Protein 1
Amino acid sequence: MNTTTTAPNAPLGRDMEEWDEFLQGRYKEGKSEEEFRVYDEHANPGVAEFYRLNHQHQSFDYVMAKEKEYFGLSKGMKTIWEAAEFLNTLVDDSDPDTDLTQIEHLLQTSEAMRRDGHPRWFVLTGFVHDLGKVLCLYGEPQWGVVGDTFPVGCAYSDQIVFPEYFKANPDYNHPVYSTKYGIYEPNCGLDKVHMSFGHDGYIYEVMKNYLPEEALYMLRYHSFYAAHKHGAYRHLMSDHDVKMFEWVNKFNPYDLYSKGHTKPNMQELKPYYDDLFAEFFPEKIAW
Ligand SMILES: [Fe+2]
Ligand SMILES: [Fe+2]
């Protein structure tokens, strides 16, 4: 893979890569809650700046506008491979020798699941989980594509990383959106809750007619760290959400820790994935 992006105006994947590494450091196995906080303070300035922009701009109105723009899936029909190849044009140029391409991250995630004997839909979920990052190639800023996700239209939890940056968000002092429940009913269920916009919500929309519910939870909430790592927002979750989050928790370690040094052999793996895609999807799906 070359070191520059081939898509016109495509931002480089640097913030994305930095965020992935930041997450791995944040949730290193055995790390205490206290160490987590310390890590925040000493986080590199690039990541802090990324979250400053994310928290400032992810307001209820912003999310509603982006949902309207993207959830109708009007960006064209593509096969899974076409979407993956398109995503692969987004390349991190910070360290091209050691970094994985986007497809390699997807394959390492899904192959680790396959090695552990998970069902085929689970492996498939591993492969597609970050395809929503094509939003970057549609011109969305990286703070609006990756990063932790959280509900909007109600108070921002202090369990979200860098909570102090929400003070610059227009909803921070809003009479309704700044309250605990905001526009929602207690335990209304996450399906009724608007999440900050990003690659998780978008890939859920793309996949929702094709994959089992467990898979859809994994896709939709895989960056909702405040909930699945810190137990925040239980007051909006239904009992069903709580049960389904067991799957989000099963998924998460593969996303965080499956990065290895051996690059997956695409040619060797392709036939397995051709069959897997054909089992769940028509040839092309709407993006
Ligand atoms: Fe992701
Ligand atoms: Fe990922």
Protein 2
Amino acid sequence: MSSSDAMAGTVNGGISFWYAQTGLPVPREPLAGDASADVVIVGGGYTGLWTAYYLKKAAPDLRIVVLEQKFCGYGASGRNGGWLYNGVAGRDRYARLHGREAAVRLQRAMNETVDEVVRVAGEEGVEADIHRGGVLEVACTPAQLSRLRAFHEHERAYGEDDRELYGARETAERIRVADAVGSTWTPHGARLNPVKLVTGLAAVVERLGVTVHELTPVTEIRPRQAVTPYGTVRAPHVLRCTEGFTANLRGQRRTWLPMNSSMIATAPLTAGQWAAIGWEGRETLGDMAHAYMYAQRTADDRIALGGRGVPYRFGSRTDNDGRTQAATIEALYEILVRFFPSLAGVRVDHAWSGVLGVPRDWCATVTLDRSTGLGWAGGYVGSGVATTNLAARTLRDLVLRDSGQAGSTELTSLPWVNHRVRKWEPEPLRWAGVQGMYATYRAADRREAASNKGESSRLARVADRVAGRH
Ligand SMILES: Cc1cc2nc3c(=O)[nH]c(=O)nc-3n(C[C@H](O)[C@H](O)[C@H](O)COP(=O)(O)OP(=O)(O)OC[C@H]3O[C@@H](n4cnc5c(N)ncnc54)[C@H](O)[C@@H]3O)c2cc1C
């Protein structure tokens, strides 16, 4: 079977594969006119919903309103790869800005966050197909292997004593990736079904008494006001939890760049196909390429695999239903078959894309401006499934401190709190920069694969510098 046969029946878009089994949710009622609350949360993804959850748990009398433009889980929280893991964007920069000890505290908090999500999901009866298999990242070229070893040591130096380094044979005992020469594994990770988590969370917060309005786009956030076409909600605290869609809000066009990530999901694999691959531990799987991939073995035994397609659309445009270009689907399929040659010809059931938010310095942040009552959390780049939970607990502490209901906490002193960064460049510089960066990463990967040298391509370092990543 050729790759075009494999994609003949592929569903393209439909928000994401994760909705294919459950169907898209029936939306909740929109806002019905002007209203007031104690806290307004804009955005019904993990950040907004976790924040509502923790605030309501801490202060059950708070009147909390969530305003969501479409339906909860419409954004990245309903489209991601389901890696619940301890990575946080910007940690190394925070170490440079605030000292190593502060960054180690942030990392430790992230490690605990993986446990926290698993714990709360269990406690609240959110059945999200969570499997704690850890995270396995593989190297397939000499250059990737040296990066892998350096990465492994770097992570251990942040206190991950339980991280393990594997050679080719031990890697194959876990997952048989063609040409894998080594891997690093951390137990601080789990696989999950993103939609089951986000729709479960929305139901939990509603049960706790949070008001959730869907089909309610916020057009502007002002101090103590969230403005929508159906009315304005006034509250002492307004929290922006809009991640990759932030550019659509008035005055926020250059705040966080909406970066695309795309995925495919195969048909369920047969027992014979799994026997050739292994992957019994259901680790989440990634690699050390500059234009990296990420994958999971789903609860129903498919492979869901993602990577960067068309990274960015001119003018910070965001997509709507997740439709993905044919060239991107082909490129992801190529990675799938390069990793697992025995799967050549396997059917792709679904392809989709989503947007994530990228700040100019690639550092995730949680902020509450005490003079205006405006708060926000995001800029997670590609690591938000766990980070959103830590961000939400931190927003809770900031709001409770600001309203005099609590004091400072361990979380309010983490180095990512109240971090400010400049905006992205205007177009066309923004578009040209991001296109150039990803073209350079792909060229660097090709060069490394061809050269067989153990050194990272200088091209990738140039792209990192241009992008402001390091
Ligand atoms: C394809 C893909 C794969 C990914 N894989 C992983 C992974 O495996 N592991 C990982 O850690 N991270 C991953 N991520 C990132 C992760 O999914 C996100 O960081 C996380 O979901 C962000 O959650 P959020 O609530 O901040 O944003 P979102 O989930 O995007 O939620 C924002 C919400 O705000 C709503 N909204 C936006 N603007 C408005 C407005 N003006 N008015 C009202 N509502 C508004 C949107 O509709 C949306 O529902 C991936 C992202 C993508 C796109």
